[in-house]
Amino acid sequence: MKRFDEFVAAMTRVVEEEREEAKVLARATPLLKNLIAHDDWLAAEHAVPGPDTYRQYLLYRDPDARFSVISFVWGPGQKTPIHDHTVWGLVGVMRGAERCSEYERDAAGRAVSQDCEHILKAGMVEAVSPTVGDVHVVANALADQPSVSIHVYGADIGRVKRHWYDAKTGEARDFVSGYSNA
Ligand code: FE
């Protein structure tokens, strides 16, 4: 699809030309906003929710793993565990709405709730990274239909070793997410 191919080409230029995270995010944010403003390019197979849990479909992986693009699909009531990313990422909601709850890592590496929630609506983009805030829970904010967001990360995120955090103790556990479409 031309629109998605153009996004990938523009993102490739960004990672070729910028090394600083802040500059990458500043240039990538309007590109992702433009991509999610036009909901006519995502293949139907990459917008299918799982019966029990959210899904993440790899849409594109840079040959040098400098970035990856993923569609996240949440069915009604579905949410992620508390998790981090360890690399920069951008989350852009294309359909529905998502509820984001923020956490911080304490000195012992445990996740601590910031008692801070916000709703991302279709068309909105937000950044995550160890510098701007990296630990959160994302849930479908809609009770009766799926929500779909498009994420860009500064790595082949499905292969990055990162962490889940226990909801009661905040203890970190290693995880590698993989992709729903392997
Ligand atoms: Fe996340």
Overall structural domain count:
1
Structural class: alpha+beta
In the CATH hierarchy, the architecture is: Sandwich
Order of helices and strands: HHEEEEEEEEEEE
Proportion in β-strands: 35-45%
Distance between the termini: 21 Å
- Radius of gyration in whole Å, from Cα? 15 Å
Give the tags.
single chain; 182 residues; alpha+beta; Jelly Rolls; five-stranded antiparallel β-sheet; three-stranded antiparallel β-sheet; 2 helices; 11 strands; 18% helix; binds fe (iii) ion
In short:
With 182 residues, the chain is an alpha+beta fold.
Structure overview:
The chain has helices spanning 2-17, 21-36; strands at 55-61, 68-74, 82-83, 89-95, 97-105, 111-121, 125-128, 135-140, 147-153, 162-165, 172-175. The protein starts with a helix and ends in a 7-residue tail after the last strand. It has two helices and eleven strands, in the order H-H-E-E-E-E-E-E-E-E-E-E-E. The chain has a single domain, classed as Jelly Rolls (Sandwich). By secondary structure, the protein is α+β, with helices and mostly antiparallel strands. The radius of gyration is 15 Å and the shape is globular. The strands form three sheets. Strands 1-2-9-4-7 form a five-stranded antiparallel beta sheet, with helices on one face. It has a three-stranded antiparallel beta sheet with strand order 3-10-11, with no helix packed on it. 18% of the residues lie in helices and 37% in strands. A hairpin with a 5-residue loop joins strand 5 (97-105) and strand 6. Residues 83, 85, 128, 136, 138 line the site of fe (iii) ion (FE). Fe (iii) ion is lined by residues 83, 85, 128, 136, 138.
